[in-house]
Amino acid sequence: MGKITVNNLGKAYKQYPSRWGRLAEWLIPGSKSRHRLNWVMQDVSFTVNPGEAVGIIGINGAGKSTLLKMITGTTQPTSGFVKLEGRVAALLELGMGFHPDFTGRQNAYMAGQLLGYSVEHISRLMPEIEAFAEIGDYIDQPVRVYSSGMQVRLAFSVATAIRPDILIVDEALSVGDAYFQHKSFDRIREFSKQGTTLLIVSHDKQAIQSICDRAILLSQGRVAMEGEPEAVMDYYNALLADKEGASVHQVMTDDGKFQTISGTGEVEIEDVQLLNADNESIELVKVGEDVRLRVSLYVKEDIESLVIGYLIKDRLGQPVFGTNTSNLHHPLEHVKKDSRLQFDFRFSANIGEGSYSIAVAGHRGAVHVGGNYVWKDLALVFNVINFDKSSFVGVAWMNAKVECHV
Amino acid sequence: MLMAVPKALWAYRGFILGNVKREFQIKYRNSLLGALWNVLNPLAMIVVYTVIFSKVMHSKLPGVDRSFAYSIYLCAGTLTWGLFAEIVGRAQNVFLDNANLLKKISFPRLCLPATVVSNALLNFAIVFGLFTLFLLISGNFPSVVYFALIPVLAVLVMFAIGLGITLGVLNVFFRDVGQFFGIFLQFWFWGTPIVYPAAILPAKLRPYVELNPMADVVVACQTILVNGQWPQWSSLWPALLLGLVLCGLGLRLFRKHAGEMVDEL
């Protein structure tokens, strides 16, 4: 029970050159096909074994939702097939196709009936559904007055009122507030322990890594990678970093080289890497891990002095930490033309979980406004996860201890 | 294959009945009289047709010399036409109206037209029940002939379902269908002897009326209710055959394009 087999799945949308094309194709028997197939997904095959938890990740537009829709049967695949063994509960996008004019209670009954429960059965489950959703009196209000979070609360409560053999969850849960996310993930984890097969789409790395046994990375409608969640996540982050880098390059070609990599250009940043203790380039950093930021430079002109600095910013762009070689008492004087330099900044990543970016700059004085050779934003994007430290919140890791004196 | 449809619908009967019930509930939500409106609306219509036409305007039906004859004639036509128009009109939009549901949940799609038909039949039962009550009270009840309505209405419903599903599928891909049919339905109404008796039509137009399968069905109802006579069964053949053909065509279209449908919503 609870097995998902996806074999060679592909999806193409028909594109007609004009509105009349389809009509002609329908009406004229034996006429040549007038549409072009626009493939959004091809050759996707995988199996989720009973009791396994698999996460699907990928950037927006990679085909995650399309894949889930085909698995749940709302959309039909153009090629290949999906086989589901066991009772399926699915939460796609927002809500469960709730009718805006029906009350929450009526919608719960409708959704329950679509899942194959009888009215008496749903009536018995109803108190539990209401209690889990915690939307209070809103249960008897039409769904159109619900907030999106409330819709998700109700949809999740109905879909998981009885433990299904297979639970399929799209990004829906990210709409709920932190409290409900916690509550729902607890329930998902509980189901997983009891043997429910899970298929989850999420951008939440922690969620994928803590729940899933395996992750599948979709990219441009194909399986780009499948394996251990951590390894796949690393690869995904690299892909993301690459994408962000690419967008930077695009601005460059538009407005010339000095727009994004600003500066006077005497110095060129050739490479920026984050290395771990084993000298491997990483995108995923553990809280407290000792890392090195390696900045490789090429000096194009003779210059008087050179200071190299970096700035770590959080997801929202707030500076977290920044310093430079002048502050660290290591400025360089009289750098010759055509020399290549490599700076290693060693530090402990005593920062909280999340996504960070690093900007790197080379300038003349202690501050970069005084003669800026080069400035590169988003030179590197990395993620911090809490791997072996006690759980904490916030942007800084302070290695707290507790003592109790009586 | 042929049994798969009724089987799926039977398995989801709870959902279909639930839908009918919910739609019924929300129709007059936020109203003080609530479910009473389900009776008041059709009642008002029957009162208008009977009192205004027979007592105020003294409209007479040629050949029948009873005071309520024209009123009954009018009700027989409009009520049955109303059933037909409701099924077709709502079935042609049923997939568009439920796009939200279709995109998110997998279930036998034919549950939706089934809901439409059940709902229309329920509405019809209410209004026709009131009308029957009026026939009984005013002494115009057509005795045992009344039950001949059952096969006649069955033909009508079959025809409406076939047409409705066909248009419903087409409307997803070509939205013009819904717009066009809204206009067409008006002409069809006036082209059917509902408000006027077929006898007043000039001889030149008669052959065209005979091409209209709905005219046969409506006339059969009028024969039963106004004249208290058995309908001419053979006249129902065209509607029945056309209904069967449309049902087949509708199901075939549906089978072929159901998968593509969600992509177009």
UniProtKB/TrEMBL annotation, chain A:
SUPFAM superfamilies: P-loop containing nucleoside triphosphate hydrolases. GO terms for molecular function: ATP binding. CDD domains: ABC_KpsT_Wzt, Wzt_C-like. The lineage of its organism: Bacteria, Pseudomonadati, Pseudomonadota, Betaproteobacteria, Neisseriales. Residues 4-245 form the ABC transporter domain. Gene3D superfamilies: abc- transporter (atp binding component) like domain, P-loop containing nucleotide triphosphate hydrolases. Pfam families: ABC_tran, Wzt_C. Belongs to the ABC transporter superfamily. PROSITE patterns: ABC_TRANSPORTER_1, ABC_TRANSPORTER_2. Keywords: ATP-binding, Cell membrane, Membrane, Nucleotide-binding, Transport. InterPro entries: AAA+_ATPase, ABC_transporter-like_ATP-bd, ABC_transporter-like_CS, ABC_transpr_TagH-like, Bact_Polysacc_Export_ATP-bd, P-loop_NTPase, Wzt_C. It comes from Crenobacter oryzisoli. This is ABC transporter ATP-binding protein.
From TrEMBL, chain B:
Residues 33-257 form the ABC transmembrane type-2 domain. Keywords: Cell membrane, Membrane, Polysaccharide transport, Sugar transport, Transmembrane, Transmembrane helix, Transport. It is found in: Cell inner membrane; Cell membrane. The chain crosses the membrane at residues 32-56, 68-89, 110-138, 144-173, 180-201, 235-254. The keyword Lipoprotein does not apply. It comes from the Bacteria. Its main location: membrane. It is a multi-pass membrane protein. Belongs to the ABC-2 integral membrane protein family. This is Transport permease protein.
